[in-house]
Write a structure and sequence with these properties.
One of its GO terms (molecular function) is ATP binding. This protein is α/β, with parallel strands linked by helices and 553 residues long. It has 18 helices and 15 strands. It has helices spanning 35-45, 76-81, 113-123, 138-149, 152-198, 205-217, 219-235, 240-254, 261-288, 293-313, 318-369, 371-384, 427-430, 433-451, 467-480, 493-496, 523-535, 541-552; strands at 2-10, 13-19, 24-29, 62-69, 89-96, 102-106, 109-111, 124-128, 391-398, 410-417, 425-426, 455-459, 485-489, 501-510, 513-520. The chain has a 6-stranded antiparallel β-sheet with strand order 2-1-4-5-6-7, covered by helices on one side. Strands 8-12-13-3-14-15 form a 6-stranded mixed β-sheet. A 3-stranded antiparallel β-sheet has the order 9-10-11.
Length: 553
Amino acid sequence: MLSRLYITNYALIENLDIQFDAGLNIITGETGAGKSIILGALGLILGNRVEGKHFFRNDRKCVIEGYFRIAPYELQSFFAENDLEYEPETIVRREIAVDGKSRAFVNDSPVTLNVLKALGELLMDIHSQHATLQLNTEHFQLLILDSVAGNQNIVSEYKRLLARYRESSDMLRHLRETIAANNAELDFNQFQFDELYEARLQDGEQQQLEEELSQLENAEEIKRGLASANYLLSDSEQSAVEELKGALQQLQGVERYLASVGELSGRLESALIEIKDIADEVATLEQSVYMDEGRLNVVNDRLSVLYGLQKKHRLETVADLIVLQQQLETKIQAVADQEGHLSEMETQVERDRVALQHVAEVLHGSRAAVVDKVEKHVQELLAEVGMPNARLQIDVRFLEADRFKPSGASDVQFLFSANKGQPFQPIHKVASGGELSRVMLAVKSLIAQTSALPTIIFDEIDTGISGEVALRVGEIMERLAENMQVLAITHLPQIASKGNAHFKVYKQDEGDKTKTNIVLLDKDKRVMEVAQMLSGANPGESAMQHAKELLES
């Protein structure tokens, strides 16, 4: 429950410190006094976003703090999941800096707005006069059924399975698209691969062939050069070999007279042997070189194949062609592999669908099971607030053919009849504003009983009602306040007279500033406030007496 609300420097509020009662708290005040401002500040600590700058003084930050007694509500798991320190009296604080930036804290630990909002949903429900529009939405109608049925866990499980089913379905769709694209390219890729495979590509082959081609094309010049070299080395009368032989003989002739010539003779003999070897190899090589037209054609043809493939694929080397061949082979194999994976993926999606279908059916059955309870409760409460012939009919249908929605596989519609003989129609088409308010009160009271929410706020839910009906509405709020904290902002004296605590919101001028204040009314001031609500600013004796009677009742 909300035990204390502290507001400083927000809109028309300079400083407010409000201590709330654990039961029914009534808040009254003239239109424009600032009730909605207090509600707006409360919304900020429940996770609402800051819309613009709202400062009483523009040179100071705005601070809003709510003190919540949460010991009875078993919220320890929420604090553990969000790495927050749990305190039986938890303090929620929102600060808005002068530049408009805001920060949020739970027990002095900084939190995101998402965490703050999630905590706020566990602490408080704010129902305004405009919230009756929610009755027309399927989301809210399903929320009513789920709250009464206690479907929180199964709804979470459904959402988890729905997310898994959608993920696997997306993966299957992507895989099918990939396979279709690969299949469209398969024939072309296979053709290119076969062409490269049949070419029997070898790394380094092109360089070897180009060298061989050069030799074949210049065979005559090569042979002529080798023959000339061989002639000069060994065949001519003054060949290198013969000249060296003569020089060696001369050195050997004087070697017996000059010992140092022996070393030179040895070296010259080694050179002669080396020259003879070279001459022999040149002769052999010269004999092996000849013009082979057949081989020249073979080499030219092979190089034409390699050059043609390089040009076709815009590559520069045979090594690049080999890499391309490997890539094509991988793509072709991937198509075969993906066909096998497709079968596995289809099986997985079907498993996910069956699991989701089962939980959807269980969720739908749980919703359908509480329809009678909701209809009966609303009918009884509407009779109590002056609508004895009103009926609510809830139509819940299961969606066939795997029509899974984020909310489940249920279609729901609230149908309403306010009078005898009036056919059931969608509630927003036949219910007036006052009737919608009473239906919403009945629904909210039922949700409050089943959800164990600490606090509920009714912001002018009395729209369109008065007199005895307003008195009955006040009595319902009293009963609600026996099990939870209720804050009711109202303009009706019948409701205002029911509270355990009565606060009055008012404005006052101080210098060049208008300020909003709030005060807890004592017994005498409360009589005066109710009397003024009955008859105006200057109530007479009868209004005062009526006010006393309302408060005493």
